[in-house]
Amino acid sequence: MICCLNPNCHQPNHATLAEACPTCGVRLEPRLRGRYRPLKLIGRGGFGRTYFALDADRLNSRCVIKQFAPQAQGTQSFLKAVQLFEQEAMRLNELGEHPQIPTLLAYFEQDKFLYLVQQMILGRTLFQELSAQAPYGEAAIRQLLDDLLPVLDFIHERGVIHRDITPTNIIRRKTDQKPVLIDFGVAKQFSETILYEPGTRIGTEGYAPMEQLRSGQAYPSSDLYSLGATCLHLITGCRPEELYNPMAGRWLWQERLQQQGRNIHPGLAEILNGMTKDLVSERYQTVRDVVNDLQRLPKLEGAVPGWVSTQTADSLFANLQPRPISGPGKRWVCRCRPLPHPKRLPLELVHPQSRHQPPPPPRSTISGSRMVIGGEFLWFKNARVCPGMADSENPNRPSILGRGYSFQPQGGNPGQR
Question: Domain range for residue 325?
Fold first, then answer.
């Protein structure tokens, strides 16, 4: 299999060893620089395309190739674009030393195109993670901020702004579950001169602040805004544009949480609001300002990161085996094997029954219950799907874990929250 590198080719992926592309007729390049073999087109934008490839010099290890091919070829604009791309390559070479940023493997020119080769990160984006589970809880949001804020501090100290932080540009690495910040394709040095070309978007609508979308200017606080908007998406399950009222000029994400029967610590809510202020002057200015406020929040005892439920929800429900306890006034108990989690915490499902009611059938929906994990009660209610969202992005799951079950410790009161 080989991929056509012509940026104007409409069908570049081919399972062929021919010398020319069957679609556009351009000569197929089996290996870039005699080393990198492009196999599949995986992304495109105003600056060029992104390919999945194999590195022959590193035992055919997987890598990502970014081809720089701006749509406008005017003399001044093209030279400026090349200059910015070269600056980006130099910056990424420094940033690649961070474990939560893909390593830059190569930068070169071939056939009048510029190429960046980066390490490939295996895992799922946070957008994919959210599509497969319920919205994040407070513990998961705080963990995400704890993991990503040091990364932003690292790049900001080196004069780089990411400019496009979204759930799709954060991958949870499969090996250690750490979030990795990807796609520095629009990353720039701190500068008031921003390249504008037809078809080029700097930032993503809903996640990028006003100063970035309107004037092209970006600051460290612009990345903090984008990270804050990402957190609002993850904690509510709704896109930022659905959480903002432009007529009132305010966010409605806390009202959405209340509609879902959920809430978070007021201190964390204040931090998220401070990260997503419209005016730069009213927003957090540095990463360390956010970190200082996060450290003042009370610790969550017994909290479990959101990715645990993501990986174990399906297996948990597959292992549920209802077992009735006979006798008047007894309860219907549902036990499961321990979760595949380092602490291996047991769970059990309990539903109080009156003396005259038979136990419910296996796998029936049980409402008004709670989950206990590590000594902390977590309340689960039916998740509310935001209006206007695509079904593929927001599957209509009956409950936070996707089966309509909820949990409480044996002997608890299901009516008490």
Answer: 301-417
